[in-house]
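Lab notebook, design round three. We kept the backbone fixed and only want residue identities now. Task for the bench partner: fill in a sequence for the structure below.
Input structure tokens:
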């Protein structure tokens, strides 16, 4: 059984009380209030002073759907409070429009129009740049506001462009796609087949020199990658589970991609225990440092010393707040299904990396592979936060848009792999894939059970009596531990005169 969390029971207790008292001096806004007796007020409005009208209004009772929609905006479309350098947060839309028009006109009239391919290339670049400018101005902030919301708006714009590119590629032929790649890089993207390094060679030769020879740039990539992944997932047991699940996934798909085959000691000791394990430990330790830190953001205008101003400017590139991820609560079935879905999408995203570069013969060292990994990493950061809120917050009923786009990216990448790889790759062994899917389902349940057992074993629960019944509850819970998000949400609830009891 998945344990309920302590703040949830507090909410249950608070739900038995009456609604919270409204603020003494409300902040009126359109749509927040309705008239008690509209006809009486209309008849006597000419005789009343302006100050006497507000008492005749009463707060409008919001429906559950309205409250959930407002809460969704609070946690997925963050608003920057306490702005320190105002010039960086003003729209400047007219200035941007003037500069953009001037640049595009100059680029259009100064280009050489004799080469059709160059015209198409320049036109696509200009269209992409224009779309990213629109993204920076019009798209929602998302769940992150550090170092600046414009970065995450542009990230969202890049993810939308990538989705459109994948959708367009899906309707092309393999020869046309290769022709475009060959045109972009005639030297490194013109190969028909990819020559990949073989790892499952002479596995019986286990020596220090042999092991050391495997400690290449990919080992560093494993360590740095899992450091970042564990900082995004923020749960050591789930990280270890995904790390082991990926090695099993490589074994299952070896009949399709021989490059997945590697020596047992390489997979177990070098990948899972050494590189991945150290990366997970490093990432979790960084998370603990951020969890213990108190985030107190002071305006740069209030800092007197030059050293203090410089330090505050550097801190702008650190998180605005840090949310502890508690993936388990009393919603046992829903939470287990959420973890299973999360792991499957994660593994499919990893598989797409290897299948795409193998099908289109793109070497691992090519910048395309590097920039795609960077893009997926940027997209996954807000996507994981939005999926986590969807899975853990009972008031969030739909996925955030960035997470939705990320799921579309994974699906379209997989569709391109199936379409263009069906003539190149061996047929999938349905039996292996079925066993793999069932194994991951069982593994997810074991992961959930192990997490609950770990919490009970190390006394991170407390017995609380509710209505005469004893319940074991988590001492820590991300539902109430949303960092600055919770403070932001509470302030905006009070401004809209929404009581916490409206959620119960």
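Proposed sequence:
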């Amino acid at each position: 059984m998945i344990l309920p969390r302590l703040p949830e029971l507090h909410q249950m207790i608070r739900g038995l009380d009456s609604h919270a008292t409204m603020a003494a001096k409300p902040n009126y806004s359109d749509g927040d209030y309705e008239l008690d007796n509209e006809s009486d007020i209309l008849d006597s409005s000419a005789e009343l002073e302006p100050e006497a009208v507000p008492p005749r209004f009463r707060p409008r009772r919001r429906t559950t759907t309205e409250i959930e929609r407002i809460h969704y905006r609070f946690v997925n479309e963050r608003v920057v409070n306490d702005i320190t350098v105002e010039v960086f947060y003003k729209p400047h839309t007219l200035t941007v429009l003037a500069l953009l028009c001037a640049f595009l006109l100059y680029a259009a009239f100064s280009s050489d129009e004799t080469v059709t391919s160059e015209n198409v290339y320049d036109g696509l670049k200009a269209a992409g740049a224009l779309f990213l400018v629109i993204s920076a101005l019009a798209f929602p902030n998302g769940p992150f506001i550090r170092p600046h919301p414009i970065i995450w708006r542009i990230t969202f714009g890049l993810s939308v462009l990538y989705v459109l590119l994948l959708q367009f590629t899906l309707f092309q032929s393999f020869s046309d796609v290769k022709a475009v790649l060959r045109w972009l890089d005639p030297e490194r993207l013109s190969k028909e087949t990819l020559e990949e390094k073989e790892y499952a060679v002479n596995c019986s030769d286990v020596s220090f020199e042999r092991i050391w020879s495997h400690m290449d740039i990919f080992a560093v990539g494993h360590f740095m990658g899992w450091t970042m992944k564990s900082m995004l997932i923020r749960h050591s047991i789930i990280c270890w589970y995904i790390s082991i699940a990926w090695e099993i996934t490589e074994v299952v798909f070896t009949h399709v991609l021989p490059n997945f085959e590697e020596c047992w000691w390489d997979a177990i000791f070098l990948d899972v225990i050494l590189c991945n394990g150290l990366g997970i430990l490093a990432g979790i330790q960084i998370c603990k440092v951020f969890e213990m830190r108190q985030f107190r953001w002071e305006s740069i205008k209030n800092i007197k010393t030059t050293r203090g101003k410089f330090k505050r400017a550097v801190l702008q590139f650190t998180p605005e707040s840090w949310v502890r991820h508690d993936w388990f609560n009393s919603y046992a079935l829903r939470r287990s299904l959420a973890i299973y879905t999360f792991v499957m999408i994660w593994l499919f995203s990893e598989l797409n990396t290897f299948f795409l570069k193998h099908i289109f013969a793109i070497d691992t060292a090519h910048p395309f592979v590097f920039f795609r990994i960077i893009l997926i990493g940027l997209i996954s950061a807000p996507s994981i936060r939005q999926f986590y809120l969807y899975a853990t917050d009972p008031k969030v009923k739909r996925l955030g848009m960035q997470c939705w786009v990320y799921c579309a990216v994974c699906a379209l990448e997989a569709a391109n792999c199936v379409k263009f790889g069906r003539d190149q790759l061996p047929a999938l062994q349905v039996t292996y894939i079925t066993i793999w899917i069932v194994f991951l389902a069982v593994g997810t349940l074991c992961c959930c059970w192990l997490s609950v057992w770990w919490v009970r074993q190390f006394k991170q629960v407390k017995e609380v009596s509710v209505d005469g019944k004893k319940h074991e509850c988590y001492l820590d819970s991300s539902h109430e531990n949303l960092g600055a998000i919770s403070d932001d949400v509470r302030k905006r609830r009070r401004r809209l005169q929404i009581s916490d009891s409206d959620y119960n």
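Keep this in mind before ordering anything: Residues 459-503 form one domain.
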